[in-house]
Amino acid sequence: MTEFLRDKRQVSQQFNRAARCYDSAATVQQQAADTLLDLLQEQHLPLNGHWADIGCGTGYSFASLLKLGAGQVSGIDLASGMLETAAARKLPNIQLIQADADDLPLATDSQDGIFSSLMIQWSEHPQHTLQEWARVLKPGGTLAIATLLPGTHRELQTAWRKIDNFRHVNPFTSQHELTRSLFAAGLVMTRLHQHQIQPLYSNMSELLHTLKAIGATNVNQGRRPGLAGRALLRALDQHYPRNADGRLPLSYEVCWLLATKQPGYETAPNHRPWMEPYRRHQGKIPT
């Protein structure tokens, strides 16, 4: 059994802290969601029936999913703070659920579609996560995912490697592993698109503030204990690459994909054995 590298409660807490300021800082995240919505519009309009937005955050995509034809959207997130912000949108036909993406409180074959933008990169076991999503997806239903690939935040990783040997950047699943996991879950990919998004920052303070504002902080095992001091941040600034204008790039390697559940494919029952170590050692996230 693969060891969990992140405490899910810490992941939830960091997004709770980021909930109020998230939308104002989440430019890349919104661009990724908009592109995923565009792909849906190109190939699957109109949507219909019941859709789940897994890792819905502040509910940024709710209005667009409804506009594209979804009759009802279940917004699912681990962080209660994100759901509270999403509730403030006061949109019709939205149900908010606090739940783990690996342990969905949804019936088997109940969803006409699943939408998930920049969430599955937080999964320690993408195949298991996708198997759970395939379980709740109706045969012939649509899965729409945006996720991050290796190479994301490589500038940060390169700079920190010149300073210490601690882990400062989250690991990301490769495209090959992701597509293999889709196939193993009984999902057939119908569209794949990859593109680099690279925002630029005026200084290190602005870059780090943005990462904190979107909850993208480091909760991995092997990270440096405690907070980084001023000397460390000065060293990071010194080693960080700059473009010709002196600004700091931060790369996001984004993968968008659409898939469908094979009719006749038998999904796993409503039991997730891979969750047992987390339940045993960490306790279940309260809902």
From TrEMBL:
Keywords: Biotin biosynthesis, Methyltransferase, S-adenosyl-L-methionine, Transferase. Converts the free carboxyl group of a malonyl-thioester to its methyl ester by transfer of a methyl group from S-adenosyl-L-methionine (SAM). It allows to synthesize pimeloyl-ACP via the fatty acid synthetic pathway. It comes from the Bacteria. The lineage of its organism: Bacteria, Pseudomonadati, Pseudomonadota, Gammaproteobacteria, Oceanospirillales. NCBIfam families: BioC (TIGR02072). One of its GO terms (molecular function) is carboxyl-O-methyltransferase activity. This is Malonyl-[acyl-carrier protein] O-methyltransferase. Residues 53-145 form the Methyltransferase type domain. Belongs to the methyltransferase superfamily. The gene is bioC. GO terms for biological process: biotin biosynthetic process; methylation. It comes from Parathalassolituus penaei. InterPro entries: BioC, Malonyl-ACP_OMT, Methyltransf_11, SAM-dependent_MTases_sf. It catalyses: malonyl-[ACP] + S-adenosyl-L-methionine = malonyl-[ACP] methyl ester + S-adenosyl-L-homocysteine.
